[in-house]
């Protein structure tokens, strides 16, 4: 899911061009993706009557395509739920991001409170957003374990806690000083730990505590967070910098090196390649363990790379970031024909 902390603004800067990020894995797209799926997801979200100033622009965001290239192996029902969740979280995040600081804090606290209640009705539910997330949560719960739903709610709450902490500590318009401090903060405000759960969901898996606690799994997840920060910050930089936003890797590097954003760009691209190298090395190590040889784990590791490629594809071409009237999606390397059945060795609902 797209995510970034609420940003403070400064004077807009000259347009910056980011070269296409080098994809290391094939672009795979679900065969379930079509106009009907996109319309189904958008119609569902818009039916709740939340403020959507430009409905056509909202539809061009194409959350169904995002889900189809990030989680191409999902069955159709799961793919639709993943797209709905992406649409709902992104829209609620955007409302927080665009609000004045006091209102943003209140909205973030409300979102966090809903997550801590596992998106069930409670005394302080937001009357506008509660119906969206209650409906969505009930949809997902019909085909997921209670344990998985608890893990997902906890992951969303942890992500929102990081965003709220960011909001509270940047009230004085003081961004983190230096690259290390920025990345430490950014690791808490990115939703990638949530997306790890959604990747499991796309495959009908619920990874066991033992698999998640394996040292190489933990390292791989940490490195996946790192590479996703770099993808998101690089590909969103032209839009964010043009809008005068200050919370981005390039603003931090430019300040630290006392150079322009364009001059900081090669360093940022180098960090991206280094993060991808580190991830690929850890991925290779895990594949050669007893855990990594299990079919469900191999499928999960492949799916993490699908997500990486899909995120690059969607963020590069989505009107949300490209600022174009229509998306110019890339022809996929492969169309995935999901079997709409669980993986070998998984019931789709059993803890693994």
Automatic annotation (TrEMBL):
It holds the Pfam family Terpene_syn_C_2. SUPFAM superfamilies: Terpenoid synthases. InterPro entries: Isoprenoid_synthase_dom_sf, Terpene_cyclase-like_2. The keyword Metal-binding applies. Its cofactor is Mg(2+). Residues 328-352 are annotated as: Disordered. Its EC number is 4.2.3.-. The keyword Lyase applies. Keywords: Lyase, Magnesium, Metal-binding. Belongs to the terpene synthase family. PANTHER family: BETA-PINACENE SYNTHASE-RELATED, TERPENE SYNTHASE. This is Terpene synthase. It comes from Streptomyces bullii.
């Amino acid at each position: 899911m797209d995510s970034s902390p609420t940003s403070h603004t400064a004077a807009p800067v000259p347009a910056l061009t980011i070269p296409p990020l080098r994809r290391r894995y094939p672009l795979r797209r679900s065969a379930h993706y079509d106009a009907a799926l996109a319309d189904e997801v958008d119609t569902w979200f818009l039916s709740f009557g939340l403020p959507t100033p430009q409905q056509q622009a909202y539809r061009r965001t194409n959350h169904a395509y995002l889900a189809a290239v990030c989680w191409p192996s999902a069955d159709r029902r799961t793919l639709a739920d993943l797209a709905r969740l992406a649409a709902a979280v992104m829209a609620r995040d955007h409302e927080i991001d665009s609000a004045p600081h006091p209102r943003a804090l209140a909205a973030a606290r409300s979102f966090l409170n809903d997550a801590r209640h596992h998106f069930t009705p409670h005394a302080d539910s937001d009357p506008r957003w509660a119906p969206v997330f209650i409906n969505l949560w009930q949809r997902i719960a019909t085909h997921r374990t209670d344990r998985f739903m608890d893990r997902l709610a906890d992951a969303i709450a942890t992500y929102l806690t990081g965003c709220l902490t960011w909001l509270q500590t940047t009230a004085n318009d003081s961004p983190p000083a230096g690259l290390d401090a920025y990345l430490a903060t950014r690791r808490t405000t990115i939703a990638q730990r949530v997306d790890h759960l959604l990747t499991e969901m796309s495959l009908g898996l619920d990874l066991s505590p033992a698999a998640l606690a394996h040292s190489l799994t933990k390292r791989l997840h940490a490195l996946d967070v790192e590479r996703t920060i770099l993808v998101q910050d690089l590909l969103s930089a032209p839009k964010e910098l043009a809008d005068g936003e200050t919370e981005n890797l390039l603003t931090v590097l430019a300040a630290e090196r006392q150079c322009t954003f364009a001059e900081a760009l090669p360093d940022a691209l180098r960090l991206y390649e280094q993060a991808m190298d580190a991830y690929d090395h850890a991925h290779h190590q895990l594949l050669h363990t007893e855990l990594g040889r299990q079919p469900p784990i191999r499928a999960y590791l492949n799916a993490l790379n699908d997500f990486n490629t899909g995120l690059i594809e969607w963020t590069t071409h989505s009107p949300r970031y490209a600022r174009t009237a229509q998306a110019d999606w890339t022809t996929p390397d492969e169309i995935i024909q999901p079997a709409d059945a669980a993986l070998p060795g998984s019931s789709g609902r059993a803890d693994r």
